[in-house]
Amino acid sequence: xxxxxxxxxxxxxxxxxxxxxxxxxxxxxxxxxxxxxxxxxxxxxxxxxxxxxxxxxxxxxxxxxxxxxxxxxxxxxxxxxxxxxxxxxxxxxxxxxxxxxxxxxxxxxxxxxxxxxxxxxxxxxxxxxxxxxxxxxxxxxxxxxxxxxxxxxxxxxxxxxxxxxxxxxxxxxxx
Length: 175
Fold this sequence. Notes:
The chain contains six helices and seven strands, in the order αβααββββββααα. It is of the alpha+beta class.
């Protein structure tokens, strides 16, 4: 199944998945600069895939392979002009230096981390919890009654009929 992003919430959901990466496809600001500037940008690894390091409500922090620093992508303001198409995200840049610029990212998963390829996460089975009435009744009974599971008569050793233990709170006996 191909990755399809339609909104910022889809993009955030994608970034929160393990193995999420983005890669610069086009940066019009860098394309307008001299060749030496573009070469330096490429030499720093800025066109390499960026893997997600952390995500918050307003930003994502990325790591770039073979580069010691991190890259931040903020989405707190101005995201209304972001464009989403299939697996690409176009983010406009407001540099104030000439015509409007944009960065286009291609979103993908790291090799072997595609949700279709990776093994499903196995969840532990949850046990049904005990009703709260039985927990309270068991904790209020005397120790001998707890271990024997009988009424108060068995705690004294007498051979009388067991006395039922009523819950501390609740309906009691229904007739």
